[in-house]
Write the structure tokens for this entry.
Amino acid sequence: MDQFFATCPRGLEAVLAQELTAMGAAQVHATDGGARFSGPLAMSYRVNLESRVASRVLWQIDSGYYRSEDDIYQHARNTPWDRWFTPHQTIAVKVTAQRCPLKSLDFITLRIKDAICDFFRDGTGIRPSVDTRLPDVRIHAYFDAQQFTLYLDTSGEALFKRGYRQYTGEAPLRENLAAGILRLSGWEPGMPFLDPMCGSGTFVLEAAQMALRIPPGLKRTFGFERLKNFEPKAWEQLRAEAAGKPVAASELPIYGSDIDKWAVMDARKNLESAGLTGVASVEEKDVLDIFAPAESGVLVMNPPYGERIGEADELAELYPKLGSVLKQRFAGWKVGIFTADLRLPKLMRLKPSRKIPLFNGPIECRLYLFDMVAGSNRK
């Protein structure tokens, strides 16, 4: 059984662990920034292909104790890198750490890179080249106070890059964060869904792909395909099984809208790129003009964070009006609002049933969940 670590946006670790368990991964354990799991190598192929929440899948290849940069160099120098790739492939090394007593992560990164290059130079006379942008092989190292772990990245490009989103507006939400928010909101395929601030359509696209059971990695390639121990037959079988999972595309009760006509155009182009034209609908509409498209359902939105000059004041005016719209027109609906603006519930005059801390990259946010009833939620 191989050991793996799947990373994810902070706050979604438990959601990722549930997803991994459902896929059949063994010894699943959620921890800060992701979840550990074990299984055969093909399990990493499946997680890359089917996980909607993971950011990367890292395959553990070695670990050890250290006291200095030289310890790290010697350990990395003795790792049999030629099992997994050749010196003709490009590499990149990334180091992360918690409570590491050594002074410079950049210097540790350099020592690991030197160790890999020296290993190949001594064995073949050829040093692999470094490509920090699009390497053939990505090596990750994680350090705590005493131990370090070496990983090979089986994902390549980050998994939130599904391959369908061609058009984005300013600061788009990453796809795996959107998928995790959908899970936390209580939405399930078959339920009506609405995003009235849809931007380029990330929530709408993720909901449609979930509803049609389209694996998120079906249209892209992965880092494991470039490793020497890649198992093509196992991969082709997994892809064939995944290609047979989607249900026939048809019109679904999935709706998006936005006041920005250019954002609406982007969302429609992205739906077309994903082969989802006619499955979900997106229209140009002010959020204050929306009405519930069904008696019950789930509404999720990601309003602006109020970081621009004057924007915070505009949002302070918008929130009470938005709260009234939700109370008057969405009784029977569940509402999820993802924001970094902690004033939101008070200004909307709504009491959230849950407040879930999440991170959008480095930005600490909240997912506020509301159960809408007729009239105010406040006593």
